[in-house]
Amino acid sequence: MKFDKVQLNYGYNELEPYIDALTVETHYAKHLQTYVNNLNALLKGYDEITSGKTLEDLLSNIDSIPEKIRQGVINQGGGVANHNFYFSILSPKPKKAPEGKLLEAINNKFGSFEAMKEKINNVSIAHFGSGWGWLVLDENKELEIITTSNQNSPLSIKKKPLLTIDVWEHAYYLKYKNVRADYVKNIWNLIDWSKIENIYEDYAK
């Protein structure tokens, strides 16, 4: 397979009690794997547009994808990229808050770290239907909070993801049922700011 799912740095049960083991296993090994399989099947025979390209390259230049498969790449490729990013920033023993230049940028933009968290919580909880809450860098390398629907990626609207909360029901329903707000508030116990700081520093160069 040209594109694959990210390797987890933790066991399925290690995100408990905030996300249960069955949800992590189902989400990662079944939902994400389905997106991976569908994307690779969709791109079979399109070596000319995938050769030497990362998934980020494809999603960042979505208009260059042939129209026949463009929406499929948005859906399936976004499903792979969004999930890979989500799983990569979670940790059983995370750094709970940012420091340094990222914290300074957050304070300048949102007033405080807690104010930023509240804004991300609010947009993620209020997002209608399936989708994602994001902290991103815009084209001017300014912080921005957005949501995307379905599997749309911020990369396709020229924004670089720093943090995401998956608000598809499959991300939380087994444990939290219909109470998305509890899941959103609890996931901060797993978001690893050491990883996000590294992403920010790479993008901000």
Describe the protein:
The protein is mainly alpha-helical and 205 residues long. Helix content is 50%, strand content 10%. It contains 9 helices and 3 strands. A 3-stranded antiparallel sheet has the order 2-1-3, sandwiched between helices. A hairpin with a 5-residue loop joins strand 1 and strand 2 (143-149). Helix 1 runs antiparallel to helix 4. The longest helix has 22 residues, at 21-42. It is globular and about 45 Å long. The mean pLDDT is 97.
For this entry, give a set of tags.
single chain; 205 residues; mainly alpha; 50% helix
* Fraction in helix: 40-55%
Q: What is the overall number of helices?
A: 9
Q: How many extended strands?
A: 3
- The average pLDDT is 97
Choose one word for the global shape.
globular
Order of helices and strands: HHHHHHEEEHHH
For the record, give the distance between the C-alpha atoms at the N and C termini, rounded to a whole number: 32 Å
Strand order of the largest sheet: 2-1-3
Structural class: mainly alpha
Radius of gyration, in Å, reads: 17 Å
Percentage of residues in strands? 5-15%
- Largest sheet: number of strands, sense, barrel closure: 3 strands, antiparallel
Instruction: Indicate the low-confidence ranges by residue numbers.
Output: none
